[in-house]
Structure formats: structure tokens, C-alpha cells
Specification:
The complex is a heterodimer of chains A (273) and B (192). Chain A has 273 residues and is an alpha+beta fold. Chain A has helices spanning 3-14, 20-32, 34-53, 61-73, 89-126, 130-151, 163-169, 257-272, and strands at residues 158-159, 190-198, 201-210, 213-221, 230-234, 237-244, 247-253. In chain A, strands 1-2-3-4-7-6-5 form a seven-stranded antiparallel sheet, sandwiched between helices. In chain A, helix 1 (3-14) crosses helix 2. Chain A is globular, with a radius of gyration of 23 Å. Chain B is mostly helical. Chain B is elongated. The chains are: A alpha+beta (273), B mainly alpha (192). The interface between A and B is large, with 73 and 65 residues.
Chain lengths: 273, 192
């Protein structure tokens, strides 16, 4: 590919939205081409300046209380079961039926959520600092990588359940040789792998399965810094990171914390063998 | 460091493949900052933004029955942008208004300008420059650069194909850069 062909892809590349194959091509090209290399640097500077200097406005506390008051004042439907707000009565009836059974559960859930929020707020103060910022960034990045892989159906470049096929596939595509283990015996069969990015560098991505759930496991060397232990749930996804034997690991899935914890300890056990 | 044991999503009795359906509060309340941020950038003003968010939650509550789970944030943001746009339009009624036109607002050459992103009072000027852009450009940058939405999420919230997301984002940054160059020059003149 020529510079002209790469050009429209550079912004997409800088946004981290380009597929792995083109990403590798661009990185190889940029090493040899100072013009494109400089262009990428400026685009990155622009991207970072936008992310850094545009404030994220947060909702004043009054917004939350107004939402809650408004919600409590809203009737679900009038006595005749008719819609009171232009919503089809049929749909409302369905909701009422489940509402009866679940209303209690909803409020239990809700108070649990409130308790969790208080705990998070307290924990947050204690963990404040640069390390926390990096780990939050990694968690977000890991989740985004996971979603991107699922949503662009670019989950796997090598499809194999055999670790001895997957491991050699990475040779020449990465500057390190990632440890690849199959966990079929523990109920987490390996299904394939691809090259992806995290922590501003290329990483091996291994794909595992648990029932209908996909687990992405990102592996990259600790050369630029170990990440330590992180466990976090973010918008319905569970992320677990740890460092071991010269590698950083990040596991992401929509599985619960318990099952993903099992997965990560099985991985560590197998790799230590 | 995790929040094990207090997560309301963790229900040991339910099979993990069948998660407990989210309540209105669980699904949407955590996204109030995202909703407010979008409304604030679109409306350019605090009180209008607060009203829009409140109105959006009301609409969200009314149609929560049609919410089929999944990404509550994208669902809510779609409502927020609709509420904001209809307010902006009714405010602009009677005012001669140039309709947003992707080609009209296109920036002829988007040559990233190294200088303007390396110097000057970026903290003050970058937000100012964004305030000056047309609604559609403020919106996409508030969602992408500030809120961190992916192309895919942008496509869902704004309701345009991925190709349009990429080109609009690129033009929005180009336009913002032009405004920033203008503001920096003005600043430099004042300093002389």
C-alpha cells in the first residue's frame, strides 16, 4: 500500500478502530516512512488534546434527585389498566404482571445498588492516585477491546482449539512469544486467537469459551511495566488483570466475577506448569 | 479490589446465562453523567442541560417497556439527543438557520496542524473552539472525545452508518482545528 492509500486510514488507526491486519501494515509502513510517521504523531497529539482539554460535564446532584422524584410520582397505569402516557395498554399490562412479582425484588436490588455505591465511594477515596488512573484506563481499554472484537466480528484470525497451532501462529506477528494454554479440561475451551492492542502496544489475544460466553484474554510482556492485580466490573462486563512470569494478563467477559476468577486462576496454574 | 459480594448483579441462585432483568434505576441511572455531558455540550448551557436530562429520563421511563436490555447507555443517549435537538429546533424557529449539510460544512483539506496542538492555552481554547461548531459536530466530539464512545456506539446513538461516523468525526476535528487556529491567532494579537 502507498502513503495515499494509508492516509484515510490513519485517523481510524489513531482512534484504535482499525482491524489488526491493517494496523500491522500501518505500523510497519510508518517505521519506514517519516511523513506518515509524523502525521500519525500529530493526529495522536490532537486526539490526546481533545480527550484532555475538553471537560466532561457531570450531572449536578439536583438532576439525580429530580429524576428520582419524577420516577416516584409516575403512575404505571390508571385503574382501568389504560395507558396514562400514550403507551399501549397491552404493553403496560405485561409490565404490570411482572411488576407485581418483581416490585419487591426491584426495591431490594435497588437498595443493594445504593449500598454498593456507598462502598465504591469510600473505596474510591483510598485508592486515589496515579496507579488507580492507569488501572482504570486499562480496565476501560480491555472492555473496549472486547466489545470491538465481538462487534466487528473480528474475534479470531486463527481458529483452532489446539494450543500447538495457536502459539506458533503468533510467531513473526508479535515481538514476543505468548504463553498459550488450553483449559478445556476445566470447562474453558480455547477457540482461537488474534493480534490486538492494549496499553499502547501490540498484544496476543486468546479467545476462550464458557457455555455461550466469550472470554478474551490479552497477553503482553511486562517490559514497559507490570500492571498488578485488578478486578473490576464495568457496565456489565467483568475485567480481571494480573501480572505473572514476565507477562501482563487481562481477561474480559460478560461472565460473573466468580467464574472469571476461576478462569484466571486456572490460567495462572497452567502457565506455571 | 473488586466489589465482590455487594454487586446487585450477582445472584447466586439464577443461572448466569439468564441475568436478572435490570430495573429502570439499575439500567439508566448510572448513565446520568453521560446524559448530562451530551446535553450540556449540545445546549451550551447548564439549566437547559438539566431540563433536557430530566425530560429524557421521563421519556425513558415511559418507554422503558420497549427497552430490551443491552446497552442502556446508548439507548438513553439516543433519547437525550432527540430531546436536545427538538429544543434546539424550537428555539431556532424564526431565526434564519443554515441547515446542517455534511458537504457544506465539509472542511476542504484536513491537514493536521502540529503547531496549534502543541502550544497556546489549550485548556481555555479547545472548549471554546468546540462551542463554536455546528450541533452535529459538537455532538459527535462530545460523544467520542469526551465520553469515549466507539464508532459502533456512535453509529447506534446518532443513527448513521459507520462510514458517516468516520467522515463526520474527521470533519468535526478539522473544523475544530480551524476554529482553534483562529482563536490562537486572536490570542497572539492580543498579547502583542
Amino acid at each position: 500500500m502507498t502513503c495515499e492509500e494509508f492516509r484515510p486510514l490513519l485517523e481510524v488507526y489513531v482512534d484504535g478502530e482499525l482491524d489488526a491486519a491493517h494496523t500491522l501494515q500501518i505500523e510497519k509502513h510508518a517505521e519506514a516512512c517519516p511523513t506518515c510517521g509524523e502525521r500519525i504523531r500529530v493526529l495522536q497529539q490532537r486526539r490526546d488534546a481533545l480527550a484532555h482539554f475538553l471537560p466532561r460535564y457531570t450531572a449536578p446532584a439536583v438532576v439525580e434527585s429530580r429524576i428520582r422524584e419524577q420516577r416516584l410520582a409516575m403512575p404505571r397505569a390508571n385503574a382501568a389498566g389504560e395507558s396514562v402516557d400514550g403507551f399501549p395498554a397491552k404493553a403496560l399490562k405485561v409490565r404490570q404482571k411482572e411488576g407485581g412479582k418483581r416490585r419487591m425484588l426491584r426495591w431490594v436490588n435497588f437498595s443493594l445498588a445504593a449500598a454498593a455505591a456507598v462502598l465504591v465511594a469510600f473505596g474510591g477515596g483510598a485508592r486515589w492516585g496515579a496507579a488507580r488512573q492507569r488501572s482504570e484506563h486499562l480496565v476501560r481499554e480491555a472492555r473496549e477491546t472486547h466489545l470491538r472484537a465481538l462487534s466487528t466480528s473480528h474475534l479470531m484470525d486463527v481458529v483452532s482449539t489446539d494450543q500447538h497451532t495457536v502459539k506458533p501462529w503468533f510467531a513473526g506477528k508479535l515481538d514476543f512469544s505468548p504463553p498459550v494454554v488450553d483449559l478445556a479440561a476445566s470447562g474453558f475451551p480455547l477457540t482461537g486467537g488474534r493480534v490486538d492492542r492494549i496499553d499502547a502496544r501490540p498484544a496476543a489475544a486468546l479467545v476462550y469459551q464458557r457455555r455461550q460466553h466469550v472470554i478474551n484474554l490479552l497477553i503482553w510482556p511486562t517490559r514497559e511495566g507490570a500492571i498488578g492485580q485488578i478486578e473490576k466490573s464495568i457496565e456489565g462486563y467483568q475485567v480481571e488483570c494480573w501480572s505473572r512470569g514476565g507477562y501482563n494478563f487481562a481477561a474480559i467477559s460478560d461472565l460473573g466475577a466468580k467464574e472469571l476468577g476461576e478462569f484466571s486462576s486456572e490460567i495462572s496454574k497452567e502457565i506455571a506448569k | 479490589m473488586g466489589f465482590r459480594g455487594v454487586s446487585p448483579e450477582m445472584d447466586e441462585d439464577a443461572p448466569p446465562s439468564d441475568p436478572v432483568p435490570a430495573t429502570f434505576e439499575q439500567a439508566l441511572l448510572p448513565h446520568r453523567d453521560a446524559a448530562y455531558n451530551l446535553a450540556r455540550w449540545l445546549m451550551r448551557e447548564t439549566h437547559e442541560a438539566e431540563d433536557c436530562v430530566q425530560d429524557s429520563y421521563l421519556r425513558a421511563y415511559r418507554s422503558f417497556g420497549t427497552f430490551r436490555g443491552g446497552d442502556g447507555k446508548a439507548w438513553l443517549l439516543t433519547i437525550v439527543r432527540n430531546v436536545c435537538y427538538s429544543r434546539l429546533r424550537s428555539k431556532q424557529r424564526g431565526v434564519v438557520n443554515t441547515a446542517f449539510d455534511e458537504t457544506l460544512h465539509a472542511h476542504a483539506i484536513d491537514e493536521p496542524d502540529a503547531g496549534v496542538w502543541r502550544s497556546g492555552d489549550l485548556r481555555a481554547l479547545v472548549p471554546q473552539a468546540l462551542e463554536m461548531l455546528p450541533d452535529e459536530y459538537r455532538e459527535i466530539l462530545a460523544l467520542h472525545a469526551v465520553e469515549g464512545l466507539s464508532y459502533k456506539e456512535l453509529s447506534a446513538v446518532i443513527g448513521v452508518p459507520m462510514g458517516t461516523v468516520m467522515s463526520r468525526l474527521s470533519r468535526a476535528r478539522g473544523r475544530l482545528q480551524t476554529e482553534l487556529q483562529r482563536l490562537s491567532r486572536k490570542e497572539a494579537r492580543r498579547d502583542v
